[in-house]
Amino acid sequence: MSLQELRRQIDALDAQILDLLTQRAHVVQEVGHSKTRTQTKFFSPERERQIFERLEEANRGPLPPTAVRAIFREILSGMRALEAQIRVAHLGPAGTFSHQAALDKFGTSSELKAADTIPDVFALVERGEADYGVVPVENSTEGIVPYTLDMFHEKGTRLKICAEVYVPVVHNLATHAETLADIQKLYAHPQAYAQSRNWIRDNIGTSVEVVDATSNSKAALLAAADPTSAAITTSIASELYAIPLLAQHIEDSPHNRTRFLVIGENEPQPSGKDKTSIFFSVQHRAGSLMRAMAAFDAHDINLTMIESRPTKQLPWEYVFFIDIQGHHKEAQVTRALKLLEEHSLFVTILGSYPEAN
Question: What is the pLDDT of residue 244?
Protein backbone atom coordinates (compact mmCIF):
# COMPACT_ATOMS: atom_id res chain seq x y z
CA MET A 1 0.00 0.00 0.00
CA SER A 2 1.07 3.58 -0.56
CA LEU A 3 1.95 5.89 2.29
CA GLN A 4 -1.34 7.75 1.79
CA GLU A 5 -3.31 4.50 2.03
CA LEU A 6 -1.44 3.47 5.16
CA ARG A 7 -2.20 6.81 6.77
CA ARG A 8 -5.90 6.44 5.94
CA GLN A 9 -5.78 3.03 7.63
CA ILE A 10 -4.15 4.58 10.71
CA ASP A 11 -6.81 7.31 10.81
CA ALA A 12 -9.55 4.69 10.72
CA LEU A 13 -7.89 2.72 13.53
CA ASP A 14 -7.51 5.90 15.59
CA ALA A 15 -11.24 6.53 15.23
CA GLN A 16 -11.95 2.99 16.46
CA ILE A 17 -9.60 3.44 19.42
CA LEU A 18 -11.27 6.72 20.35
CA ASP A 19 -14.71 5.11 20.10
CA LEU A 20 -13.61 2.29 22.41
CA LEU A 21 -12.10 4.75 24.86
CA THR A 22 -15.38 6.65 24.92
CA GLN A 23 -17.26 3.42 25.66
CA ARG A 24 -14.77 2.64 28.43
CA ALA A 25 -15.22 6.14 29.85
CA HIS A 26 -18.98 5.66 30.15
CA VAL A 27 -18.46 2.41 32.06
CA VAL A 28 -15.88 4.10 34.31
CA GLN A 29 -18.38 6.83 35.15
CA GLU A 30 -20.78 4.15 36.31
CA VAL A 31 -17.99 2.63 38.39
CA GLY A 32 -17.43 6.06 39.93
CA HIS A 33 -21.11 6.33 40.89
CA SER A 34 -20.91 2.87 42.49
CA LYS A 35 -17.77 3.79 44.43
CA THR A 36 -19.41 6.98 45.66
CA ARG A 37 -22.44 5.06 46.91
CA THR A 38 -20.27 2.47 48.70
CA GLN A 39 -17.62 5.01 49.81
CA THR A 40 -14.91 3.00 48.05
CA LYS A 41 -11.55 4.62 47.35
CA PHE A 42 -11.15 5.77 43.75
CA PHE A 43 -7.49 4.67 43.56
CA SER A 44 -7.23 0.87 43.61
CA PRO A 45 -3.57 -0.18 43.22
CA GLU A 46 -4.36 -3.90 43.39
CA ARG A 47 -6.87 -3.54 40.53
CA GLU A 48 -4.39 -1.54 38.45
CA ARG A 49 -1.70 -4.17 38.95
CA GLN A 50 -4.07 -6.86 37.69
CA ILE A 51 -4.94 -4.73 34.64
CA PHE A 52 -1.27 -4.22 33.74
CA GLU A 53 -0.43 -7.89 34.22
CA ARG A 54 -3.35 -8.98 32.04
CA LEU A 55 -2.41 -6.53 29.27
CA GLU A 56 1.26 -7.46 29.32
CA GLU A 57 0.37 -11.15 29.17
CA ALA A 58 -1.98 -10.55 26.23
CA ASN A 59 0.50 -8.32 24.37
CA ARG A 60 2.02 -10.05 21.34
CA GLY A 61 4.05 -7.10 20.08
CA PRO A 62 5.45 -5.29 18.32
CA LEU A 63 4.86 -2.76 21.13
CA PRO A 64 7.25 -3.52 24.02
CA PRO A 65 5.74 -4.04 27.51
CA THR A 66 7.08 -0.68 28.70
CA ALA A 67 5.18 1.11 25.92
CA VAL A 68 1.96 -0.75 26.69
CA ARG A 69 2.29 0.12 30.38
CA ALA A 70 2.97 3.81 29.61
CA ILE A 71 -0.01 4.07 27.25
CA PHE A 72 -2.42 2.44 29.67
CA ARG A 73 -1.03 4.38 32.63
CA GLU A 74 -2.30 7.54 30.96
CA ILE A 75 -5.57 5.88 29.96
CA LEU A 76 -6.14 4.84 33.57
CA SER A 77 -5.16 8.30 34.79
CA GLY A 78 -7.66 9.98 32.47
CA MET A 79 -10.38 7.48 33.34
CA ARG A 80 -9.76 7.88 37.06
CA ALA A 81 -10.19 11.63 36.69
CA LEU A 82 -13.73 10.95 35.44
CA GLU A 83 -14.47 9.29 38.78
CA ALA A 84 -12.73 11.92 40.93
CA GLN A 85 -9.80 14.32 40.69
CA ILE A 86 -6.94 12.63 42.55
CA ARG A 87 -4.68 15.07 44.42
CA VAL A 88 -1.13 13.83 44.94
CA ALA A 89 1.53 15.47 47.11
CA HIS A 90 5.18 14.80 46.34
CA LEU A 91 8.56 16.00 47.52
CA GLY A 92 9.26 19.07 45.41
CA PRO A 93 10.01 21.06 43.47
CA ALA A 94 8.51 20.07 40.13
CA GLY A 95 10.98 18.35 37.82
CA THR A 96 12.57 16.11 40.44
CA PHE A 97 12.62 12.32 40.63
CA SER A 98 9.82 12.51 43.22
CA HIS A 99 7.73 14.43 40.69
CA GLN A 100 8.54 11.74 38.13
CA ALA A 101 7.48 9.02 40.59
CA ALA A 102 4.12 10.72 41.12
CA LEU A 103 3.56 10.94 37.36
CA ASP A 104 4.61 7.32 36.86
CA LYS A 105 2.08 6.14 39.41
CA PHE A 106 -0.85 8.52 38.90
CA GLY A 107 -0.39 9.94 35.39
CA THR A 108 -0.80 13.45 34.07
CA SER A 109 -4.53 13.68 34.75
CA SER A 110 -3.89 13.87 38.49
CA GLU A 111 -3.46 17.12 40.40
CA LEU A 112 0.14 17.20 41.68
CA LYS A 113 1.21 19.27 44.68
CA ALA A 114 4.90 19.90 45.40
CA ALA A 115 5.89 19.98 49.09
CA ASP A 116 9.14 21.30 50.56
CA THR A 117 9.87 18.41 52.92
CA ILE A 118 8.90 14.79 53.56
CA PRO A 119 6.95 15.78 56.73
CA ASP A 120 5.07 18.33 54.59
CA VAL A 121 3.98 15.54 52.23
CA PHE A 122 2.60 13.56 55.16
CA ALA A 123 0.90 16.66 56.57
CA LEU A 124 -0.87 17.49 53.29
CA VAL A 125 -2.39 14.01 53.16
CA GLU A 126 -3.25 13.94 56.87
CA ARG A 127 -5.05 17.30 56.59
CA GLY A 128 -7.02 16.13 53.57
CA GLU A 129 -5.38 18.63 51.21
CA ALA A 130 -4.06 15.72 49.15
CA ASP A 131 -5.46 12.23 48.68
CA TYR A 132 -2.07 10.56 48.46
CA GLY A 133 1.58 11.34 49.01
CA VAL A 134 4.69 10.09 47.22
CA VAL A 135 7.91 9.95 49.26
CA PRO A 136 11.33 8.39 48.64
CA VAL A 137 12.28 5.55 50.97
CA GLU A 138 15.26 3.74 49.48
CA ASN A 139 17.97 4.15 46.84
CA SER A 140 19.82 1.18 45.41
CA THR A 141 23.24 2.80 45.89
CA GLU A 142 22.74 5.37 48.67
CA GLY A 143 20.54 3.22 50.93
CA ILE A 144 17.57 4.13 53.08
CA VAL A 145 15.92 7.55 53.40
CA PRO A 146 15.68 7.89 57.21
CA TYR A 147 13.29 10.87 57.22
CA THR A 148 10.55 8.77 55.64
CA LEU A 149 10.91 5.87 58.07
CA ASP A 150 10.99 8.22 61.04
CA MET A 151 7.61 9.66 60.08
CA PHE A 152 5.98 6.31 60.84
CA HIS A 153 7.35 5.61 64.32
CA GLU A 154 8.15 9.11 65.60
CA LYS A 155 5.09 11.01 64.39
CA GLY A 156 2.62 8.15 64.72
CA THR A 157 0.93 8.91 61.40
CA ARG A 158 -2.37 7.17 60.69
CA LEU A 159 -1.47 6.90 57.01
CA LYS A 160 -0.75 3.57 55.39
CA ILE A 161 1.56 2.51 52.60
CA CYS A 162 -0.75 1.60 49.72
CA ALA A 163 1.62 1.33 46.75
CA GLU A 164 5.24 1.60 45.70
CA VAL A 165 7.02 2.71 42.55
CA TYR A 166 10.61 2.44 41.33
CA VAL A 167 12.18 5.25 39.31
CA PRO A 168 15.47 4.72 37.45
CA VAL A 169 17.99 7.40 38.36
CA VAL A 170 18.77 8.82 34.93
CA HIS A 171 20.93 11.93 34.72
CA ASN A 172 21.09 14.12 31.62
CA LEU A 173 23.09 17.12 30.53
CA ALA A 174 20.81 20.03 29.61
CA THR A 175 22.11 23.22 28.03
CA HIS A 176 21.50 25.88 25.40
CA ALA A 177 25.15 25.56 24.37
CA GLU A 178 25.68 23.94 20.97
CA THR A 179 28.66 21.79 21.95
CA LEU A 180 30.27 20.44 25.10
CA ALA A 181 33.26 22.70 24.47
CA ASP A 182 31.04 25.80 24.84
CA ILE A 183 30.07 24.93 28.43
CA GLN A 184 31.79 27.11 31.04
CA LYS A 185 29.67 26.44 34.12
CA LEU A 186 27.86 23.34 35.38
CA TYR A 187 24.94 23.47 37.82
CA ALA A 188 24.30 20.24 39.68
CA HIS A 189 22.93 18.82 42.88
CA PRO A 190 25.96 17.37 44.76
CA GLN A 191 24.55 13.84 44.62
CA ALA A 192 23.76 14.08 40.90
CA TYR A 193 27.29 15.35 40.25
CA ALA A 194 28.82 12.54 42.31
CA GLN A 195 26.80 9.97 40.36
CA SER A 196 27.95 11.44 37.01
CA ARG A 197 31.51 12.38 37.92
CA ASN A 198 33.25 9.99 35.51
CA TRP A 199 31.19 11.09 32.51
CA ILE A 200 31.79 14.77 33.30
CA ARG A 201 35.53 14.17 33.64
CA ASP A 202 35.77 12.25 30.38
CA ASN A 203 33.51 14.48 28.26
CA ILE A 204 33.67 18.02 29.70
CA GLY A 205 36.87 17.97 31.71
CA THR A 206 37.83 19.25 35.13
CA SER A 207 38.24 22.94 34.27
CA VAL A 208 34.52 23.71 34.10
CA GLU A 209 33.13 25.60 37.12
CA VAL A 210 30.77 23.38 39.13
CA VAL A 211 28.06 25.18 41.11
CA ASP A 212 25.94 23.34 43.68
CA ALA A 213 22.18 23.44 43.19
CA THR A 214 19.54 22.52 45.75
CA SER A 215 17.82 20.12 43.34
CA ASN A 216 18.03 18.80 39.80
CA SER A 217 15.09 21.05 38.98
CA LYS A 218 16.85 24.15 40.33
CA ALA A 219 19.95 23.24 38.31
CA ALA A 220 17.88 23.23 35.11
CA LEU A 221 16.26 26.56 36.00
CA LEU A 222 19.65 28.22 36.57
CA ALA A 223 21.23 26.79 33.42
CA ALA A 224 18.25 27.82 31.29
CA ALA A 225 19.10 31.46 31.93
CA ASP A 226 22.72 31.21 30.73
CA PRO A 227 23.66 29.89 27.26
CA THR A 228 27.22 29.08 28.40
CA SER A 229 26.13 26.92 31.33
CA ALA A 230 24.69 23.43 31.66
CA ALA A 231 22.81 21.38 34.23
CA ILE A 232 22.76 17.78 35.34
CA THR A 233 19.04 17.22 35.49
CA THR A 234 16.04 15.07 34.69
CA SER A 235 14.24 14.88 31.36
CA ILE A 236 11.06 16.20 33.00
CA ALA A 237 12.93 19.29 34.28
CA SER A 238 14.36 19.81 30.81
CA GLU A 239 10.82 19.96 29.42
CA LEU A 240 9.58 22.10 32.29
CA TYR A 241 12.24 24.80 31.83
CA ALA A 242 12.59 24.47 28.02
CA ILE A 243 16.29 23.66 28.08
CA PRO A 244 17.41 21.05 25.52
CA LEU A 245 19.18 17.83 26.41
CA LEU A 246 22.64 17.71 24.88
CA ALA A 247 23.51 14.30 26.35
CA GLN A 248 21.37 11.63 27.96
CA HIS A 249 22.16 8.85 30.43
CA ILE A 250 25.35 10.40 31.73
CA GLU A 251 25.07 8.59 35.09
CA ASP A 252 28.04 6.35 35.94
CA SER A 253 25.85 3.47 37.12
CA PRO A 254 23.03 2.32 34.83
CA HIS A 255 21.46 0.21 37.61
CA ASN A 256 20.76 2.96 40.14
CA ARG A 257 17.09 3.47 41.02
CA THR A 258 15.02 4.93 43.83
CA ARG A 259 12.04 3.32 45.51
CA PHE A 260 9.11 5.56 46.41
CA LEU A 261 6.16 4.83 48.69
CA VAL A 262 2.61 5.98 48.08
CA ILE A 263 0.96 6.90 51.37
CA GLY A 264 -2.76 7.35 51.96
CA GLU A 265 -5.75 5.85 53.69
CA ASN A 266 -6.20 2.93 51.29
CA GLU A 267 -5.81 -0.64 52.47
CA PRO A 268 -5.45 -2.60 49.22
CA GLN A 269 -6.77 -6.14 49.01
CA PRO A 270 -4.45 -9.00 47.96
CA SER A 271 -3.42 -8.73 44.30
CA GLY A 272 -1.55 -12.03 44.00
CA LYS A 273 1.92 -10.51 44.32
CA ASP A 274 2.17 -8.19 47.30
CA LYS A 275 4.56 -6.74 49.82
CA THR A 276 3.92 -5.94 53.49
CA SER A 277 5.84 -3.29 55.43
CA ILE A 278 5.96 -3.43 59.23
CA PHE A 279 7.95 -2.05 62.11
CA PHE A 280 8.49 -3.64 65.48
CA SER A 281 10.64 -3.51 68.58
CA VAL A 282 12.11 -6.20 70.83
CA GLN A 283 13.47 -6.27 74.35
CA HIS A 284 17.05 -5.07 74.74
CA ARG A 285 18.37 -8.54 75.50
CA ALA A 286 20.76 -10.94 73.82
CA GLY A 287 19.03 -13.04 71.15
CA SER A 288 15.76 -11.09 71.17
CA LEU A 289 16.00 -9.99 67.55
CA MET A 290 17.06 -13.44 66.36
CA ARG A 291 14.09 -15.11 68.07
CA ALA A 292 11.70 -12.52 66.62
CA MET A 293 13.02 -12.81 63.07
CA ALA A 294 12.83 -16.60 63.21
CA ALA A 295 9.06 -16.19 62.74
CA PHE A 296 9.61 -15.55 59.02
CA ASP A 297 11.94 -18.48 58.52
CA ALA A 298 9.43 -20.75 60.30
CA HIS A 299 6.72 -19.81 57.79
CA ASP A 300 8.91 -19.52 54.69
CA ILE A 301 8.40 -15.75 54.31
CA ASN A 302 10.98 -13.87 52.25
CA LEU A 303 12.34 -10.54 53.55
CA THR A 304 13.23 -7.87 51.00
CA MET A 305 14.42 -5.14 53.38
CA ILE A 306 15.43 -4.72 57.03
CA GLU A 307 16.50 -1.43 58.58
CA SER A 308 16.93 -0.25 62.16
CA ARG A 309 16.20 3.23 63.47
CA PRO A 310 16.88 4.61 66.96
CA THR A 311 13.75 5.17 69.05
CA LYS A 312 15.17 8.57 70.15
CA GLN A 313 13.59 7.91 73.53
CA LEU A 314 16.26 5.84 75.27
CA PRO A 315 19.90 5.39 74.22
CA TRP A 316 20.69 2.26 72.19
CA GLU A 317 17.09 1.22 71.73
CA TYR A 318 15.83 0.64 68.21
CA VAL A 319 12.79 -0.11 66.11
CA PHE A 320 13.14 -2.35 63.08
CA PHE A 321 11.54 -1.76 59.71
CA ILE A 322 11.11 -4.75 57.44
CA ASP A 323 9.47 -5.54 54.11
CA ILE A 324 8.22 -9.05 53.48
CA GLN A 325 6.69 -10.67 50.43
CA GLY A 326 3.00 -11.43 50.78
CA HIS A 327 -0.17 -9.72 52.02
CA HIS A 328 -0.97 -9.59 55.74
CA LYS A 329 -4.39 -11.16 55.00
CA GLU A 330 -2.79 -14.27 53.54
CA ALA A 331 -2.79 -17.18 55.99
CA GLN A 332 0.96 -17.81 55.86
CA VAL A 333 1.81 -14.17 56.50
CA THR A 334 -0.82 -13.90 59.24
CA ARG A 335 0.75 -16.84 61.10
CA ALA A 336 4.24 -15.39 60.76
CA LEU A 337 3.15 -11.98 62.10
CA LYS A 338 1.38 -13.62 65.03
CA LEU A 339 4.56 -15.49 65.94
CA LEU A 340 6.54 -12.27 65.57
CA GLU A 341 4.21 -10.57 68.07
CA GLU A 342 4.99 -13.25 70.64
CA HIS A 343 8.66 -12.23 70.62
CA SER A 344 8.22 -8.45 70.24
CA LEU A 345 7.25 -5.50 72.37
CA PHE A 346 4.94 -4.33 69.58
CA VAL A 347 4.30 -4.95 65.88
CA THR A 348 2.75 -2.33 63.58
CA ILE A 349 1.64 -3.10 60.04
CA LEU A 350 2.38 -0.09 57.84
CA GLY A 351 0.54 -1.52 54.87
CA SER A 352 0.19 -4.37 52.40
CA TYR A 353 0.29 -3.33 48.75
CA PRO A 354 1.10 -4.62 45.24
CA GLU A 355 4.78 -5.25 44.71
CA ALA A 356 6.23 -3.02 42.01
CA ASN A 357 8.24 -4.37 39.10
Answer: 96
Q: What is the pTM of this model?
A: 0.89
Report the candidate in 244, 308, 251 with the shortest Cα–Cα distance to residue 282. Answer: 308
Angle at 352 between CA 291 and CA 168, to 5 degrees: 105
DSSP 3-state assignment of 7?
helix
Q: If one looks up domain 267-354 in CATH, what number appears? A: 3.30.70.260
**CB of 118 closer than 8 Å to CB of 91:** yes
pLDDT (tens digit, 9 = 90+) per residue, 287-311?
Answer: 899 999 999 999 999 999 999 988 7
Supply the CATH classification number for the domain 172-247.
3.40.190.10
Helix axes 65-83, 97-106, angle to 10 degrees: 80
CA–CA dist 87, 317 (Å, integer): 38
Give residue 357's pLDDT. Answer: 77
Give how far the C-alpha of residue 113 lies from the chain's centroid of Cα atoms, to the nearest Å.
15
Task: Classify residue 312 as left (phi > 0), alpha (psi -120 to 50) or beta.
Answer: left
> What residue spans define the domains of the chain?
41-168, 172-247, 267-354
Closest CA to 323 of 290, 356, 346: 356
Q: What is the CA radius of gyration of the chain?
A: 23
**Do 41-168 and 267-354 share a fold?**
no
